[in-house]
Request: fold
Amino acid sequence: MLLTVVVLLPLAVAVVLMALPRIPDRVASWAWVATSAVDLALVAWMWWRFDPGAGIAFDVKVRWIPTVDASYHVGVDGLSLPLIAMTTALFLACAVWSLRERRRPRAYAALFLFLQTACLGTFAALDLILFFVFFDLTIVGMYFVIAGWGHGNRRRSALKFFLYTFLGSLALLVGFIGLFLGSDERTFDMVRLADNPPLQGAPVAGGLVLLAIGIGLGVKTPVFPFHTWLPDAHTDAPAAGSAILAGVLLKLGTYGFVRIAMPMLPEAWRDWAMVIVVVGVVSVVWGAFVALAQQDFKRMVAYTSVNHMGYILLGLGAAGMVGSADDDARTIATVGAMVQMVSHGLLTGALFLLSGVLWTRGGTYAFDRWGGLARPAPVFAACLAVAAFGSLGLPGLSAFIAEFQIFTGALQATPVATVIAVTGILVTAGLFLLALQRLLAGPTTAPASAASNPGPLADVDRREIVAIVPLLALSLVIGLLPRVLLDVVEPAAALVTELVAR
Amino acid sequence: MNEMASAGEEAVALLPELLLLAGAVLGLLVGLWTPQRRQVRVGVLAVLFCLASAAAAAVALTDPDETVFDGTWVIDTTTGVVRIVVALSTAVAVGLCSSAFAGHPRETEAYVLMLLGSIGTIALAASGDLLMLVAGYLLASVPLYALVGFVKDARGVEATLKYYLMGAFVGVLMLVGVAALILAGGASGYAELAMELPDVSVALVAVGVLGVLAGVAFKAGAVPVHFWVPDVTAGTAPAVAAYITTVPKIGAVAAAFRLVAEPFANAPVDVPLLVAVIGAASMTLGNLAAFAQTELLRLLAYSTISQVGYLFMVVAVAARTDIAEPALVVYLAGYAVTNLGAFAAVAALPGSATITEWAAAARRHRWLVVSLVVCLLGLVGTPPTAVFVGKLAVFTATADGAMAWLVVVAAVNTVASLFYYLRWVAPATDTAAPATGLATTAARAPVVTVHAAAIGSLVLGIGAGVWLTFTGV
Reply:
């Protein structure tokens, strides 16, 4: 019941915000902040009460479509709880960030609250159809965020985003139907499908279903070659939209691999683990090098997401290589992938909000229009440096914990791929340092757009600090005290690797 | 079957149809004695009889399946749901017409024709005999010819002529098909044909199947007999277009389902493949043609052609899987609600025929846009709307019926369809665009209908478990 409240509370507030025409804009913005804060508090309470060894907690099941055995079935375990916590934290940051949104703030708040319900629902879902429902609604919500509040070529980018990811979601639906028809019990229930995996002993059908699900999740993640919607969507989205898109929506794809593809298609996952590893490594290298070539800060961050998602696929693919690695190594790789999801959400969320600082000051993300910002804007420079160092995997921040575990776990299974992926770290390190140098060092330059308020060289204000710094602090906590997170993730990840080995 | 039962008892089983008929006759009589400007009372009467008919059908829904009048009229879950959906859709269409045709010299006749067409639609869905199917075809067609040309303007007359000529031509094909099947099987009842058809000449059966399917495909507006749909839809009033693209299609698809499930189930020709190709062609051509449309009614017309394609998927696997019938029922109900909503949105802003005009006029009606978005995304099949549940069920049934290729075609088409629905959604939701000077007042009844359809679509989708359990499929 508590989980249902956490998931549906934002939607309820969104409906109230839309339904009452008299609500002033400021009240609407603060209502968004308050709702997200309450949601975060409820999730913190859930975390406190959660027993990692006990499997699924807070679960509720209500029959929905009996003819195909689909139900409203939600619950949390060690895989979903960290992502739910990260999601609520990031939405709260975006709520604070958007307190000064001037363009239709009431509709904006309602849309983000709707999006929050959709994201939380996807992570909490324990039924394939319910997962799909929320998964699809995130696309609808993000389409309107980009189309309504974006900049630049927003309509075109939003359309491209919608069509591309909708194609992915339909591939996913086809895969889900394959799982349903292949199961002995004819059910969409994730728990029962994972207990009694469908299509065992049918490598062709299992492979095709995995292909459909893989395309569906791969578009969302996104992995090479399905990533081309990502840079446009990010470049033209508002800062908070980008933070959610990168921080949360991309995780829906990678989470789907851990939650659906691995436990429900263990045989196919093992058969095709090498392909998944290769796709992951190609994404790592491709994302890193294309990011290196960008002349635009936000596009660069967008491409680093492709790189970071590639590590996750590397880890998950390695977890499927049962023959060439022992259980411990594969578990470590899975844990690393899970931590990477949380870490990337926090750090990239912060980076996109920081790119929003540039946009509100100067209306551009182009590297050649900015320079020497460390002197006039020291707090901005410090935040950017922490986020960038975190993102490139500096020890002490969360991404290091994640990537270190992925490489450790994957090395035994696929040494060559892992070594290639490590070079991705080098390129990422180079490009982030280059970006810091271009933006922060050298003579101070800023775009001469006099109309902007605050001025082009103003440092981050209090609202922006309140939004960004907690994200970096959380990353630091995970980097310094990883047990907080690992205690929750490890039992669930061990279970997944065990299920894959069946 | 039940020869012991008297005709009177059997007639009671047709209470929902009789109520519609009574509504038509009474409406005509009341209309004769009603002054021109008060003819709306005939509309109220028609709506009441529609609701009574739906209620009667709902009460009878859980009764065991039966056939009456020597097996010519089948009353089962499909018929029951079609009865309810048709009666309620007709009520909505009458409500939409009441604002479009208020004070029209032949207002009464419009309502009566709609009721008669609805009886024909139910006859199509319920017929268990080829001759009854032909009767249903005629009863569902002739009133509509008159309805299309109601306004008597140039486009309406052209549309009527096209509709009528094509309907007459296809009607002949259908009669040839029926004759061939009777010749081959020696009977016109579905049950007898199901037994006889497997052992007779392939050529005769092929002619028969093609002819009969041409008839139902015409009523459903499926490729290759879809050419009337865009002209008729765009040539008539939006309210009438809503009726013609919703109600007859339901009966025709249900009729096709029954044909494929019963008499054609073991026919010596590959009927499922034929139907699957019709479905794939409908959804693909409908979508491709819709891409370039700027006129709303034409866009929606092509959208209905593609929707029929999805419905024909489940017809193709009618005899192959048990989950086909629930899928058909869910999709039919979802389609009716959502399609009526989309057409009502056009009717809500009279004078806005194109996407840009509509978007400009809708700027002052925020909630109308929200409901439109729900309806259009519903037509795409976005969860949690009714059509999503329908599409899920249809895709599942089709894959279960060993036609996975058709599911892939349908999935690709769904993405394609998103593009043209967004062409309408995007300008309508773009509040940043400058508002035009002219303030448009929205017509009341259609606006209420759009909201009701949006809510209904969500309720049917989220509450799918509840009402599916009730229908007992």
Notes: The beta strands of chain B are 66-68, 73-75.
